[in-house]
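seq:
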Amino acid sequence: MGGADAGAVTGRDIVSPAGATSLASVDGEIMLAAEATIPVTDDGLIRGDGAFEVIRVYDGTPYAFDAHLTRLERSSANLRLALDLEAVRADAHRLLARAGTGEDHQFLRIMITRGGRRLLLTERLADTAERARLMSIPYAPTRILDGIKSLSYAANMLAGRLAREQGFDEALLVTPHGRVLEAPTSSLFYVVDGELLTPPLDEHILASITRALVLEVTEARERSCTLEELYGADEVFLASTAREVQTVVAIDDREFAADGPVTTRTRRTVLEAIAAELAS
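struct:
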């Protein structure tokens, strides 16, 4: 699940709110995002009861579209939430075709609400620092939501705000027992003695699309880690749909190298893999 960088505290989520020309699709009807509405009685709004995905769009082409839809289907099934996946797929293609390219259409957000709404909108990429400073925040994952990317993200968003209030760029979620999990909207990777590692999914973290890509194109492996052990790492970075690979230069008072060799190599490899898939 998220991070940012020194000297660039924006106080915003990694994905900016919809811009002036951002578009939305509500149950298949396309309109300006600023004009899209749903009933206030929808439990997606009232209770955060629903599922979502955010997909990076490169020059009008959504990256890892099928992987995101597969996770959306899994999240919906686990929430016992009705989902017409083919309708979502069709909505997405129509919306992106109408949107074309441009800074207001760098992401595709998909939301399925308990009220039965299919909401899709394009969003712009927020200004994000090249390197992130993280503040550890105590966090206890909700076990029943394991593997679900739900609309109930208030705890994640609050963790990030608490970190930014203290001058950091993003939060690092750590269990009350000191085990490192992830950031609010991105996965964590760290390097020890040249080996690339990441906390395992059975620590109740989200199965990130970009995390899976890093594991696929590198020799990274899963290993549990305490916060004290992480302080001793040689390099740290975040990985997510929005951040791709973002260097972490500090966690609490511990400073790390700005761009270590493993992080630099991983960033290059990940970007090459994304470019190759988009070109295929």
